[in-house]
Design brief:
By secondary structure, the chain is α+β, with helices and mostly antiparallel strands. The chain contains 5 helices and 3 strands. The protein has a 3-stranded antiparallel sheet with strand order 1-3-2. α2 crosses α4.
Protein backbone atom coordinates (compact mmCIF):
# COMPACT_ATOMS: atom_id res chain seq x y z
CA UNK A 1 0.00 0.00 0.00
CA UNK A 2 1.15 3.53 -0.73
CA UNK A 3 0.72 6.26 1.86
CA UNK A 4 0.77 10.00 1.36
CA UNK A 5 1.79 12.63 3.87
CA UNK A 6 -1.92 13.32 4.46
CA UNK A 7 -2.38 9.75 5.75
CA UNK A 8 -0.02 10.41 8.67
CA UNK A 9 -0.77 12.35 11.85
CA UNK A 10 0.02 16.05 11.69
CA UNK A 11 3.40 17.14 13.10
CA UNK A 12 1.72 18.73 16.12
CA UNK A 13 -0.05 15.44 16.91
CA UNK A 14 3.29 13.63 16.76
CA UNK A 15 4.87 16.17 19.09
CA UNK A 16 2.12 15.95 21.70
CA UNK A 17 2.07 12.14 21.49
CA UNK A 18 5.85 12.10 21.99
CA UNK A 19 5.53 14.21 25.14
CA UNK A 20 2.75 11.97 26.44
CA UNK A 21 4.86 8.84 25.80
CA UNK A 22 7.76 10.30 27.77
CA UNK A 23 5.40 11.40 30.54
CA UNK A 24 3.62 8.07 30.83
CA UNK A 25 6.84 6.04 30.79
CA UNK A 26 8.36 8.40 33.36
CA UNK A 27 11.93 7.56 32.42
CA UNK A 28 14.51 8.55 29.82
CA UNK A 29 14.07 6.77 26.49
CA UNK A 30 16.07 6.29 23.29
CA UNK A 31 14.65 7.82 20.12
CA UNK A 32 13.67 4.51 18.50
CA UNK A 33 11.72 3.47 21.59
CA UNK A 34 9.94 6.84 21.68
CA UNK A 35 9.11 6.55 17.98
CA UNK A 36 7.62 3.05 18.29
CA UNK A 37 5.64 4.07 21.37
CA UNK A 38 4.22 7.11 19.57
CA UNK A 39 3.19 4.90 16.64
CA UNK A 40 1.44 2.54 19.04
CA UNK A 41 -0.31 5.40 20.87
CA UNK A 42 -1.55 6.82 17.55
CA UNK A 43 -2.52 3.39 16.15
CA UNK A 44 -0.07 3.57 13.26
CA UNK A 45 0.43 0.18 11.63
CA UNK A 46 3.87 -1.37 11.22
CA UNK A 47 3.46 -1.10 7.46
CA UNK A 48 2.71 2.61 7.68
CA UNK A 49 5.53 3.13 10.19
CA UNK A 50 8.06 1.45 7.92
CA UNK A 51 7.08 3.30 4.75
CA UNK A 52 10.15 4.77 3.06
CA UNK A 53 10.08 8.21 1.45
CA UNK A 54 11.68 9.11 -1.87
CA UNK A 55 14.73 10.37 0.03
CA UNK A 56 15.25 6.83 1.40
CA UNK A 57 14.22 7.64 4.97
CA UNK A 58 11.31 6.19 6.91
CA UNK A 59 8.69 8.90 7.38
CA UNK A 60 7.85 8.31 11.05
CA UNK A 61 11.39 8.29 12.51
CA UNK A 62 12.32 11.18 10.22
CA UNK A 63 9.31 13.30 11.25
CA UNK A 64 9.65 12.43 14.93
CA UNK A 65 13.33 13.36 14.78
CA UNK A 66 12.29 16.83 13.70
CA UNK A 67 9.67 16.98 16.43
CA UNK A 68 12.34 16.08 19.01
CA UNK A 69 14.56 18.85 17.64
CA UNK A 70 11.75 21.42 17.87
CA UNK A 71 10.67 20.21 21.31
CA UNK A 72 14.24 20.55 22.55
CA UNK A 73 14.40 24.08 21.16
CA UNK A 74 11.18 25.00 23.03
CA UNK A 75 12.47 23.45 26.24
CA UNK A 76 10.01 20.54 26.42
CA UNK A 77 12.62 17.77 26.29
CA UNK A 78 16.35 17.41 26.78
CA UNK A 79 19.07 14.85 26.35
CA UNK A 80 20.14 13.14 29.54
CA UNK A 81 23.55 14.51 30.65
CA UNK A 82 26.38 12.06 29.96
CA UNK A 83 23.93 9.78 28.12
CA UNK A 84 23.40 11.52 24.77
CA UNK A 85 21.18 8.81 23.28
CA UNK A 86 18.53 9.23 25.97
CA UNK A 87 15.74 11.82 26.00
CA UNK A 88 13.68 13.00 28.95
CA UNK A 89 11.02 15.59 29.70
CA UNK A 90 11.90 18.89 31.28
CA UNK A 91 9.65 20.41 33.94
CA UNK A 92 8.06 22.55 31.23
CA UNK A 93 7.48 19.49 29.04
CA UNK A 94 6.04 17.52 31.96
CA UNK A 95 3.39 20.20 32.60
CA UNK A 96 2.33 20.21 28.96
CA UNK A 97 2.38 16.41 28.71
CA UNK A 98 0.15 16.13 31.76
CA UNK A 99 -2.50 18.26 30.07
CA UNK A 100 -2.16 16.43 26.74
CA UNK A 101 -2.23 12.96 28.28
CA UNK A 102 -5.90 13.50 29.10
CA UNK A 103 -6.65 13.77 25.36
CA UNK A 104 -5.27 10.33 24.44
Amino acid sequence: MTYTIDDYPKPSQLKWAMLVVLYENDRPMVASEIDRSVAKLLNISDQMYETVLENGKQYMPYRLGWERTKSKKFGYIEKVPNMPRLWQLTDKGRKIALRKSKLY
